[in-house]
Amino acid sequence: MPELPEVEVTRLSFADQISKARIKAASLGKPLRWPLGCATESLTGRTVTGVRRRGKYLLLDLQPQGLLLMHLGMSGSVMFDRHLPPPGKHDHFDLVTTHGTLRLHDPRRFGAVVYSTRQDDEPAHKLLSGLGVEPLGPDFEPAAFHRALKGKAAAIKQVLLAGQVVVGVGNIYACEALFMAGIRPTTRAHKISRARAHRLHAAIVEVLARAVAQGGSTLRDFSNAMGQAGHFQLTAQVYDRAGLPCKQCGAPIRRIVQQQRSTYYCPACQRP
DNA sequence: CTATGGACCTGAATGC
DNA sequence: TGCATTCAGGTCCATA
Question: Regarding the domain delimited by A4-128, which CATH topology (the fold level of the hierarchy) does it fall under?
Answer without folding.
Answer: N-terminal domain of MutM-like DNA repair proteins (3.20.190)
